[in-house]
Amino acid sequence: MTYACRRCCLLFCLIALTSTPLHAEVQVAEVIHAHAVLQRDKPIPVWGIAEAGEQVAVEFAGQRRSTTADAFGRWRVELNAMPMSLEPRDLTITGSATARPLVVPSVRLGDVWLKIIGRTSMADVAGMEEQLVKNAAGDAPLFSVRNVWNAHEVVRPKQTFTNQLNRRYWEPYVPRMNKYFTGSGYVWARHWWDHDLRVPLGLYRIEPGELMDMTPPAGFATVPALKAVAEQVAPWDPNSPAGRKAFAAKLAEIAAWSQRLHAQLKADDTTFRDVNQPPTLPGPKGERGQPTTRYNDAVHPLVGSAIRGVVIYIPRIGLGDDRYADKMTALVNGLRIVFRDPQLPVCLLQSPRPHSYELIDKPADAVTNLRDQQASLADIEGVSVVGTYDLQRTRNHRDPSDWANRLAKWSRLQVTGQGTTSPRYVGHRIDGRRVIVQADEQLTIGDGDADADVGGFVIAGADKVWHPAVATIEGDTIVVTSDEAPSPVAVRYAYENVPETANLANHAGMPLLPFRTDEW
Q1: pLDDT tens string 131-184
Q2: Are 9 and 268 contacting, i.e. CB atoms less than 8 angstroms apart?
Q3: Residue 379 has what DSSP assignment?
Q4: Residue 429 burial (CB < 10 Å; 0-12/13-18/19+)?
């Protein structure tokens, strides 16, 4: 080894030694940070790292729990479930080997939601200036947001800890205009506040990616159609049988690499160019869209905490993908597994009217097929699908008010039972020339005009030719007819890319989901 190379190695070793503290002060998961909202009415986990064997105690809202950090420095306690509280309180963590207590300020108890939705801005919300005046007068909604602006594709599940509580990990809303603050989150919180749901709202918002890169590894094994993906990711988890075998093999390769390198160094004939990187552990290769990579970076740091539910709105994902429903099912199941809640409520906002450029090189039925697959997910217990096909999505229409109010209504249904979700088709029967359609709740004209005609229906006979239909509301059913199809066999509703005339909704204005009774 050359003199210069030896000096570099010695300098590196000195830096590593001098930068390593004599002991690690107690740290807490970054999810539990200043201005955080913790989930009410569920056990509250608090976890972090410390010196191996260090005694750690956590105090919050009159409760105290203590534990001992394990051999790897990991510690975790669980506080009893507590009711909602608007009061900001300190959460204090003390360690037997830590000089000063770690105090997490301004922690509230409310409802925490995982929000897989793209960026929106307060500046895009209609009537924002008037609302700011109302907020400044003392009627501002109370909520905090944790934004993962640019989730990266990470090979290993990430877990971050801190004892630096001056960072803006959770950002509380203050009554002023902030073009970088979430517009949809504000609309959601404002809706709660205006409907007397005065509960602190915590939104953990991540930037959407592809469905499979956001999915936890365990989710793929729950969907038989994704068996190949499940087998691909199984060796990446060192806790699985396949993972233990794969990691053991790679560690043996790394040990052999280390032994060869030590022999070269001992022989004193190694240059910098001779030192290759060690073999990599099992995991994604790093290419864009690889399964689990965005989950590792954006979602996994939250795993371990309690949440109220999940909302998903990814308009650009799924067009032309016949496996969309399988992938979304894997995502939903995976999130329920890692958050240890098999009934975790999930809301999926359906695809809105598309941009014209989104349909370039896509099949003619790309949008209707996607909405079909999205609607089918409502068959999963605890999953709701909310229609947005009546909303225009153009480059210049960025106001999130309409769809954000709909997800707020859905979330209120989960919390109080007084909100709503989109009604669904549940069945039909054919009575001569009439098709009698049944929904799961009473329907009305969505725009509130009782004299307007019901639109959006087409009927086909045995020739499979579709004809515009006339529809009327009769009690809790919709009766559909067409003179051009006197012997109907199938009916469709809002089954086109841009359903201009579809106008059925429930009493709260939530649109009836598109449906078809055929399989042509």
Answers
A1: 888 777 778 888 888 877 566 667 888 888 887 766 668 888 887 767 678 889
A2: no
A3: G
A4: exposed
